[in-house]
Amino acid sequence: MRPVASAIAKQTPRNLRERINHTLSFLQSIPYDELMSRSNSNGSGFAPPVELLTRNRADCDSKSVAFASIMRNIYPQVPMVLVLVPGHAFIGVAMKRRKEDFALKIGGRAYVLAEPVGPAMMPLGELSERSEGLLRKGEYTYVKFQ
Question: How far is Cα 142 from Cα 49, in angstroms, rounded to an integer?
Answer without folding.
Answer: 20
